[in-house]
Amino acid sequence: MTKLSSSILNSNFLDLRSTIEMLNESDTDYIHVDVMDGNYVPNLTIGPPIIENIKEISKKPLDVHLMIIDPDKHIDSYIKSGASILTVHYEACTHLNRTINYTKDRGVKAGVALNPHTPVGVLEEILPYTDLVLIMTVNPGFGGQEFINSSFNKIRKLKDLIIKHNYNTLIEIDGGADLSNAAELINAGVDIIVAGTAIFHSNDPLSVISSFKKIK
Ligand code: DX5
Ligand code: ZN
Questions:
Q1: Which ligand sits nearest to residue 141's alpha carbon?
Q2: With a 6 A CB cut-off, is 194 part of the ligand 1 pocket?
Q3: Which residue's CA is minimally distant from atom 6 of ligand 1?
Q4: Which one, 22, 131, 133, 163, has the greatest CB density within 10 A?
Q5: Measured between alpha carbons, how far is 178 from 7 in angstroms, rounded to an integer?
Q6: Could you give the CA distance from residue 92 to residue 184 in angstroms, rounded to a whole number?
Q7: Per residue in 184-216, pLDDT tens?
Q8: Atom from ligand 1 closest to the CA of residue 9
Q9: 74 with 80: CB under 8 angstroms?
């Protein structure tokens, strides 16, 4: 059963409480929180204090995506903020094995994200330790970008690798997902779809969320 992680990046941050309350009543499986530091990506968003506030009222687990340089420096605050999944970028970590194990030892699921130009092969040594791989299907930094089509191949390659080794690693994709490509993503082996603009730029977010969940 493919899960949906609703990204609040393109929601109105002044209305965060009503956004979270709407998501609480929706069929979304996770709330996807995009943390951007203005260095790793050319955009700046929110950090631990706001995530803590979201956690206080959220009935859904928080799927926190760290687009920040040297996440080790801040990882304790993000763990404390109430993340259920904490994903760091492969390209931003010097000691990825340590970061992943540190996260898991504190009871949080550990994810590794790959930028579009990073091949899945680099994960060979880390995959057995990783709960989730997040394949970026746009260049990270902004919502509302066009899905990069070559990502399908990448998803299939990763799925083959996971099956070959009998790992439990989940595949998540992030960027440009909508109701028109969701079926193909599920078919390629995606376990969690992140969607932002498709939900928050529609007139009826609740119905878009349930439509995502009905796609097989
Ligand atoms: C982009 C973020 C995404 C973004 C996805 O860097 O990581 O989570 O919110 O938004 P859409 O679904 O609009 O591409
Ligand atoms: Zn994201």
A1: 1
A2: yes
A3: 140
A4: 133
A5: 12
A6: 29
A7: 999 999 999 999 999 999 999 999 999 999 998
A8: 9
A9: no
